[in-house]
TrEMBL record:
Keywords: Cell shape, Membrane, Transmembrane, Transmembrane helix. The lineage of its organism: Bacteria, Pseudomonadati, Pseudomonadota, Alphaproteobacteria, Geminicoccales. The gene is mreC. One of its GO terms (cellular component) is plasma membrane. The chain crosses the membrane at residues 21-39. Involved in formation and maintenance of cell shape. It comes from Tistrella mobilis (strain KA081020-065). The keyword Lipoprotein does not apply. This is Cell shape-determining protein MreC. NCBIfam families: mreC. Belongs to the MreC family. The keyword Transmembrane applies. Residues 133-274 form the Rod shape-determining protein MreC beta-barrel core domain. It holds the Pfam family MreC.
């Protein structure tokens, strides 16, 4: 029988040998697994799939508490945001209630004064609401496809607006859909009026150039609106009705005046199309244009 010390004497060199080559063996094994995985060696792929299948229940079990905690944190954050949003909306609602009463009083006063002066009432406006289906524009065109067409009563040159302001006009009408030309499109020309420092309203043309901020054209050289001046439609040309909110002057640099539309293009989901607007009824006398007439832009296809 060999003494106990003999076994220890044999095991000691083996342990040292294993420690010496363990790192190298692991590196070689890792590289081998990477190569086998890269070339889709069937046994390795099957082994990896089996390990993933076996570990899935455990991973799901351990992930549930984390998911629950994350969901709870999100709900707490949402409740906090809702409380702040509710307080903001409550305050806003109170302000709107006040302005609603002011608007009703002014509307009644306006109606009474119009009746006394014998003012011919404005023609009744029809409108359609439509959802934005797709952005069909490209590098040189800014158009939108909407979910209303001829079967819904849509008509060419209908005016697209939102609660914020003017969006554009209808240029093509299909049976179930239509296409809008945005006011930022290169072919868009919108007659507008812009506030001036002396309080007057100067007529101009809002000319699209495919940028988010179209430019004002045909302003007299001595007229220079201030940044923040409000821009609305003038009604010239008989397509856009007067008084529609368009935007504000955002910059006046190097003789170029840029306007930032009130409409947020990134959050445009629905539009309202104004129809049946007759600004120049039949039999009305012709009026000479107050602005230089620009060449008619080519219509977008």
């Amino acid at each position: 029988m060999k003494p106990l010390g003999y076994g220890r004497a044999v095991a000691q060199p083996l342990r040292q040998l294993a420690h010496r080559f363990a790192f190298g063996a692991l590196v070689v094994g890792s590289v081998g697994l990477m190569i086998a995985t890269r070339f889709d060696v069937v046994p390795v792929t099957d082994l990896r799939t089996a390990i993933a299948d076996a570990s899935t229940p455990a991973l799901e079990l351990f992930s549930r508490p984390v998911s629950s905690l994350t969901g709870l944190t999100d709900r707490i954050g949402t409740l906090t945001d809702l409380a702040a949003e509710n307080a903001r909306l409550t305050e806003q609602n109170e302000r709107l209630r006040h302005w609603e009463q002011v608007a009703l009083r002014l509307a009644a006063e306006n109606t009474a004064l119009r009746r006394q002066l014998g003012v011919v009432p404005d023609p009744e406006q029809r409108f359609l609401s439509a959802r934005i289906l797709a952005d069909t524009g490209g590098p040189f065109v800014r158009t939108l496809l909407i979910s209303a067409g001829a079967r819904d009563g849509m008509a060419r040159d209908g005016i697209a607006v939102t609660s914020a302001g003017l969006v554009g006009r209808v240029i093509q009408v299909g049976e179930t859909s239509s296409r809008l030309l945005l006011l930022s499109d290169l072919n868009s020309r919108v007659p507008v009026t812009v506030e001036t420092p002396d309080g007057a309203a100067q007529r101009a043309i809002l000319a699209g150039d495919n940028s988010p901020r179209p430019a004002l054209a045909y302003l007299p050289p001595h007229v220079m609106p201030e940044v923040g001046a409000r821009v609305v439609t003038s009604g010239e040309g008989g397509i856009f009705p007067p008084g529609l909110a368009v935007g504000r002057v955002i910059s006046v640099e190097e003789g170029q005046i840029r306007v930032e539309p009130f409409v947020d293009w990134r959050r445009l989901d629905f539009v309202r199309i104004l129809l049946g607007i007759e600004l120049h009824p039949e039999g009305a006398p012709e009026v000479s244009p107050a602005l230089p007439v620009a060449p008619a832009p080519a219509r977008s296809q």
